[in-house]
From TrEMBL:
NHL repeats lie at residues 188-226. The keyword Transferase does not apply. Keywords: Repeat. It comes from the Eukaryota. This is TRIM71. PROSITE patterns: NHL. Transmembrane segments: none annotated.
Length: 270
């Protein structure tokens, strides 16, 4: 794919707004094509239908930050504010509405993703721990070339790691890294044009294009499947205000963008 065939237009299909939370930290599509929103301030998860009506609200033991769908019944949740003596990751059973114990993390998790039966947890020291469903660590992957991490996604057997601007060891250009499941770099997109400051959430369409939100610059950028081309699709003039979640709705074949304030936009991509 070259830049000429990269998606260039996002056409608004509809917009919905939930009013229960003014600080959503993450959003995912779960079973039966419903939306799951992490309500950080109120220690809960909001289950919402695609038309904006509320399906349910689940109370949690901590402040949820990141989510990953494990299977039809369970969701992994990170609690970054918890200390080492308490659970930083829990598994929530959506049927029983109960939290299941999971392995403890010595460092706050910077990313969590599920691939088949394995749960991948990315820590602040750039270690990727591959864990079983009960939280047992099966192997550890070192990522020495990654300076700092803002999020992790797995798609089609590949890791995608968002790396924000970082100054501790010299200026680092924000980037999106694509790696195989052993941690070997496949490609790297370096944002030399200054679009990104804090790339965060990532989603993928049926052609392999990568959609990335930036919560600081209030934009959504699309990157080609090989990482060589990119284009800004959405910005503040389109209503982007700290877009914390991008998702591709396979059922409706459209891009969903969730703002921190709970606004959710549905876009047809051309």
């Amino acid at each position: 794919m070259d830049s000429a065939t990269l998606p260039s237009k996002a056409i608004l299909r509809k917009k919905i707004k939930q009013t229960e939370s003014d600080f959503v930290t993450y959003c995912s599509i779960i079973m039966n094509n419903k939306l799951l929103l992490a309500d950080f301030n109120s220690n809960g998860l909001i289950v919402q239908n695609m038309d904006g009506t509320r399906e349910d609200r689940l109370n949690l033991s901590g402040k949820p930050f990141l989510l990953t769908v494990i299977d039809k019944e369970r969701v992994g949740i990170t609690y970054p504010d918890n200390n080492v003596t308490t659970d930083r990751i829990v598994i929530l059973n959506m049927i029983t509405k109960e939290e299941e114990k999971f392995g403890k993390c010595t460092l706050p998790p910077e990313g969590i993703a599920c691939n088949n039966d394995d749960i991948y947890v990315l820590s602040m020291d750039n270690r990727l721990e591959v864990m079983g469903k009960e939280g047992n660590i099966m192997r550890t992957i070192s990522l020495p070339n990654i300076n700092r991490i803002s999020n992790l996604t797995i798609e089609n057997g590949k890791f995608f790691i968002a790396e924000p601007m970082f100054h501790k060891r010299g200026s680092v250009v924000p980037s999106i890294n694509c790696l195989d499941l052993d941690g070997k770099l496949i490609w790297e997109f370096n944002d030399n044009d200054g679009k990104f400051t804090q790339p965060f959430s990532m989603a993928f369409d049926g052609n392999g294009n990568v959609y990335v939100s930036d919560v600081i610059n209030h934009i959504v950028v699309v990157i080609s499947p090989n990482g060589k081309h990119n284009r800004k699709l959405l910005s503040e003039v389109d209503g982007m205000q700290s877009p914390i979640g991008v998702m591709w709705d396979k059922q409706s074949d459209c891009l969903l963008v969730c703002n921190e304030n709970g606004e959710i936009f549905f876009y047809d991509i051309k």
